[in-house]
Amino acid sequence: MNDWQVKIPVVLLIFNRPDTTEKVFEVIRKAKPPKLFVVADGPRPDRPEDIKKCAAARAIVDQVDWECQVLTNYSEMNLSCQHRVSSGLNWVFENVEEAIILEDDCIPHITFFRFCEELLERYRNDERIMVISGQNVQFGRQRFDYSYYFSRYNHYWGWATWKRAWKYFDFDMKLWSKVREAGLLQDILRDPHVVKVWTHVFDSVYNGRVNSWGQRWTFACWINSGLTILSNVNLVSNVGAGRYDATHTKKATPYSNIPAEEMTFPLKHPELMIRDAIADDFSQDLCFDYLPTVWKRVKLKLKKIFKNIKR
Fold this sequence. Notes:
Blueprint: E1 10-14, H1 18-31, E2 35-40, H2 50-59, E3 69-74, H3 81-93, E4 98-103, E5 106-108, H4 111-122, E6 129-133, E7 148-151, E8 159-162, H5 163-166, H6 176-181, H7 184-189, H8 192-206, H9 214-223, E9 227-231, E10 236-238, H10 277-287, H11 295-310
């Protein structure tokens, strides 16, 4: 495995955390991608300490010591997470057909890169697949002995995609009003409570109450009937959740800081391309029940879930 090198371009999204950026960079260095795209947001105007932190995070990229074309897209002003990531990925896919994407707090196992590369090639021309992700929140639960499963949820703590999929990303979510008025989330999600949750999510993002590129991407995937490939072991550990300097995940969650595990090869490919509804229901309950009015019910669900896991 030490002699293996990734052939696919890698994207590193950074901001003001040189400590975690360096940890992610060290794993990228082991994978030795031929192209490294670095997208950086600028310091916030009301946080003078960001100036040095952003500069320190960017300086880490100067440590590239393998044969690699480094392309940088640095903003001198703060664009916010949603604008910086989306504009940065637009730039990436103006230049390449596919890429592996890591944020500055998502530390992958080295086998994550090979997992993504093999599946980017296998599903390159399969329009049904929009995302390949190394994030797994099933805590060891799996129905079949395959290397990955198919999901509706495009987890993005370490993921990969193609230009042919990213072209559907629409920052303005122009079709949301039509989808909402026609009740089309019911056709996608079926469960009335889950429909209510995601209606609340998409309304909040669409109306600017939530600063998120990821949920805009989820919307794009869903309205194009896209599936996500999720690894059956967790390949990426998010070490940024619960930190004082986290942008969104100010509090640690049950699925943050899950250790990154090794993927075994050769990959065992599923014989059928059918979404794992049981795994998705688990993910919905654990990760995506965003409605604040049901928070007490969510906590009860989590207790029940973890009680079942211990059994």
